[in-house]
Design goal:
CATH class of the largest domain: Alpha Beta
Strand content: 15-25%
Shape: globular
Number of strands: 12
CATH architecture of the largest domain: 3-Layer(aba) Sandwich
Helix content: 25-40%
Number of domains: 2
CATH superfamily of the largest domain: Isopropylmalate Dehydrogenase
Order of helices and strands: EHEEHEHEHHEEHHEHEHEHEEH
Oligomer: single chain
Largest sheet: 12 strands, mixed
Number of helices: 11
CATH topology of the largest domain: Isopropylmalate Dehydrogenase
Radius of gyration: 20 Å
Distance between the termini: 14 Å
Length: 327
């Protein structure tokens, strides 16, 4: 039985989304995974497109043309110049992709980058994709952001905030909650029967027995103990400066990091162009390239499609693992 195609959203139409989408289709058209783009066909003038009426038509068209489920823009897109009048179609593409995935007509949702400032100016109330997807496709738990590349998966427990605030806001409960979500997702979506987690310390040397701060003793260590008590294989808090060496990475399936850069620096150092953003804890599968709209190079043919290609392939593999988990 042929699996449903992936649904790819248009993202910011004035950004690099259209060109990396076409490049990604050319890269995977032979071997898959098959996907369709929810967008205005005018974003890809001259490209081999197959305008489809329903997702079920995508697989047959995919080897020869990029399937597009049409969603018209309010005004024509100009590369590098976002227009708030197109905010609603951008949002509608996400909503339609999620609805199709929830209905089983798309195997997963892959999102092209959005320009958050433009959406905010148009009245979009969410900080970004993750929070919006949590509202549309939540599964009763807080959505968790994972960054992944070959050989490394990381989760930042605190995300877009200052380092001072991250240290103040970090709680045992947040680490435990995210650890549970990560372990469940590794089993269901990545086919890892017994996930191995590590938890990074907040302070240098994981606090060095309290001489560099007591957060690792009073906040992080109790979370590790709680997760272990639930039967999960968890180690920590461990010094972050040695947590990402090749030898260390071989010993775990995902690292829970205490703040944004502690997680993202190793991923982007290992694979800047191939990292994938995955939202865990949803009722659907969602991946995204680990980069922004790159307005400065939009329309110039300079954008690297590697991260989108990786996001599509990861979504396809996750969909297979989730289908197997249901059997």
């Amino acid at each position: 039985m042929t699996p449903p195609p992936l649904a790819l959203t248009m993202g910011e139409p004035a950004g690099i989304g259209p060109e990396i989408t076409l490049a990604a289709w050319r890269a995977v058209r032979a071997a898959g995974p098959a996907f369709f783009l929810i967008a205005d066909p005018s974003l890809l003038p001259g490209a081999p497109l197959a305008v489809i009426d329903v997702p079920e038509q995508a697989a047959a068209a995919f080897p020869d043309a990029l399937p597009v489920l049409p969603l018209p823009l309010a005004v024509p897109a100009v590369p590098g110049r976002p227009d708030p009048r197109n905010a609603q179609p951008v949002i509608a593409a996400i909503e339609r992709a999620v609805a199709l995935a929830k209905a089983g007509r798309a195997a997963a949702v892959v999102t092209n980058p959005i320009q958050k400032s433009v959406l905010t100016a148009a009245g979009f109330p969410h900080p970004g994709h993750t929070e919006f997807l949590g509202e549309l496709a939540g599964a009763g738990v807080l959505p968790v952001m994972m960054l992944a590349c070959p050989g490394l998966r990381v989760v930042p427990v605190t995300i877009h905030m200052s380092l001072r605030r991250a240290a103040a806001d970090l709680t045992t409960e947040a680490i435990v909650t995210q650890g549970r979500v990560v372990a469940a997702a590794l089993r269901r979506d990545f086919g890892i029967a017994a996930p191995r987690l590590v938890v990074a310390g907040l302070n240098p040397h994981a606090g060095e027995d309290g001489t560099m701060g007591r957060e690792d003793i009073e906040v992080v260590a109790p979370a590790v103990a709680a997760l272990r008590a639930e039967g999960l294989a968890v180690r920590g808090p461990l010094p972050a400066d040695t947590l990402f060496t090749p030898r260390a990475r071989a010993g775990y399936d995902c690292a829970l990091c205490m703040y944004h850069d502690q997680a993202l620096i190793p991923v982007k150092t290992l694979d800047m162009d191939g990292g994938v953003n995955v939202t865990l804890g949803l009722s659907i599968i969602r991946t995204s390239p680990d980069h922004g709209t790159a307005l400065d190079i939009a329309g110039k043919g300079l954008a690297d499609p590697g991260s989108l290609i990786a996001a599509l392939r990861m979504a396809g593999e996750m969909a297979k693992a989730r289908a197997k988990d249901r059997m």
